[in-house]
Amino acid sequence: MTKTVSKPSLGLRVLRFPLTRLILGVLMLGLGLIVGQTLISTLLKTWDWAQQEWLNTGVAVGLSILLYVGFVRLIEGRAASELSLRYWAEFPQGLLMGALVFSIVIGLLWLMGIYKITGVNGPEVLAQSIAIGLIPGFVEEIFFRGLLYRIIEESLGTWVALLITSAVFGFAHAGNPGATLFSSVAIALEASMMLGIAYTLSKRLWWSIGIHTAWNFAQGGVYGVNVSGIDVPGLLQSRMSGPELLSGGSFGAEASLVAVIVCLAFFGVLLRQTYRAQRLILPFWMRNSMLE
């Protein structure tokens, strides 16, 4: 006896259409984070800076996870397996990867005489660096990879998702202090491409969250380099000199050609693994033609 599978209603099909989910997801996550952070900032005006920094970090990370899990459950009707705690061990793996990749960048800049260590700071400077690692690591990865990249990839395929989200990610950093056209292109090529393919390979967010968090923390917290144009004190005091194309200028080492080359090489390694694991997704029209 053959079971007949009931077709989803028109309303449900519209609700779960990729463009609908993108719009609803941007509204839910964006507005939710803005309202939540505004409330916290208002309530904690009397707290000292360090206390506010730690609590703001916890609220931003926790709220982004709750909003995303709620969106996936409410709109997509499923559990957010890409954030399942069963795979949390991929987060420290990502931390190691992100720290390693940026350390390679800094090592090369040091060998070229562009990065110089001028002193050291105590561990009390780390509060801001931890925040600037964890908040973008979770909030931006959940938004850009969990929401935008995932939904676009499901419909238009891996390569289109990489191109669109990389362009959006680079543009999103165009307003940062010291940003230039090259820094936006560099962020798009080195960060978004690398983080996007990390999601495609694992089909979970923990890896990309870990890479992004450690990348930011290593820049500011360890090596004392500007993080996307933001001056963050680190354990090491440093000075960058030389041509802006190599030093990254006031934006930081992320806008260095060296960082672009190193990250694209790492992207190539992950892309090869993704291809071997057969996890690259074709656009819907190519998938449909293969079924005919």
Kindly describe this structure.
The structure is a single chain. It contains eleven helices and two strands; from the N terminus they run H-H-H-H-E-H-H-H-H-E-H-H-H. It has helices at residues 10-15, 18-43, 49-76, 90-111, 126-156, 158-172, 181-202, 206-222, 244-247, 257-276, 284-291, and strands at residues 115-120, 236-240. With 292 residues, it is mainly alpha-helical. Helix 2 (18-43) runs antiparallel to helix 5 (126-156), helix 4 runs parallel beside helix 8 and helix 7 packs parallel to helix 10. It has a domain at 89-285. The protein has a two-stranded antiparallel ribbon with strand order 1-2.
> Averaged pLDDT, please?
91
Whole-angstrom Rg:
20 Å
Sketch the topology as an H/E string, one letter per element: HHHHEHHHHEHHH
Largest sheet: 2 strands, antiparallel
| Alpha-carbon distance between the two ends | 26 Å
**Which term fits the overall shape?**
globular
Per DSSP E runs of 2 or more residues, the count of β-strands stands at: 2
